[in-house]
User: Fold this.
Amino acid sequence: MPYLSTTGLVLSEILATDPFQPASGAMALGALETTAILVDLSSSSYRTLYRVVMGPVEPGDALDIDADARVTNDLGYNVGVAWHLWIYDYSNPLKTNGPWTRISAFSGENVTPDMHHMAMHISTLYRMPADWPSGHRPVVVMRADAHSTAWQSGDTLTVDAGYGQLTVRHWTAAAVPPAA
Assistant:
């Protein structure tokens, strides 16, 4: 029996990445997708850390999202790291080349050489917009970027396998029982 919340939504699907799958050069849905974040001067050179392809959703459905990752700084200088959640339409023929929408606030912190490891957490509750095409499949993505004024070409932060996960709970509108 589906879980009915006090808000009138029904939990219909839970999808999560597997934090113990190793990163792969190919797009491995459900696994850590990169082991490194390139450090540069820009704060907009995002890397996808995790992604989950959802089943069909409807306008007004809610996605309850939690994501965690960890990076390691072996560079010897401070690096700013920003992380955020995004969504795109898997059913759109353009897929990742189609429009992306940021669905969370930006989170960020400096990972210092003394700190060395930095855990990153983010969560949001996202309501599918009224103009979402009925039955299309969203892809929820955790992305991050790394930036520093001390960067050198080729510098990277390590994304640590086994320390992160992306979990998405899909809530649908509860069916209204027929009048008696």
